[in-house]
Recover the amino acids of this structure.
């Protein structure tokens, strides 16, 4: 998946994957069919709910957060707005604001599970 990207992009994606896997160890990781995204879903019983993705690009890596506009942690990062999914750009080879990203991941997972529980009426 990362073969066509620079070393900086590959290393940054791998660092982000490690942050996601240590922050949300119960999440399920999949690579999309077109090999452009690494998706993470929260497992709730026998269902998987999309939560975030990592998308490498030429100069940066985007983290996409489902319902990210509703999360307070996004505002601590220099993040461009999206409609439903909020995209955060991390410069390839640059510093990753680990604590801010971890906070955002946890908040996104909690928000997702609460939204699903409310929709189910539980």
């Amino acid at each position: 998946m990362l073969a066509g990207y620079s070393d900086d992009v590959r290393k940054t994606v791998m660092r982000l994957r490690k942050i996601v896997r240590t922050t949300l160890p119960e999440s399920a990781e999949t690579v999309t069919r077109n090999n452009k995204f690494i998706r993470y879903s929260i497992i709730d019983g026998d269902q998987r709910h999309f939560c975030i993705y990592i998308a490498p690009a030429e100069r940066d890596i985007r983290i996409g957060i489902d319902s990210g506009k509703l999360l307070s942690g996004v505002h601590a990062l220099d993040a461009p707005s999206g409609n439903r999914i909020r995209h955060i750009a991390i410069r390839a080879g640059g510093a990753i604001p680990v604590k801010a990203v971890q906070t955002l991941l946890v908040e996104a997972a909690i928000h997702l599970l609460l939204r699903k529980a409310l929709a189910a009426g539980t």
Observations:
- DSSP finds two helices and five strands in the chain.
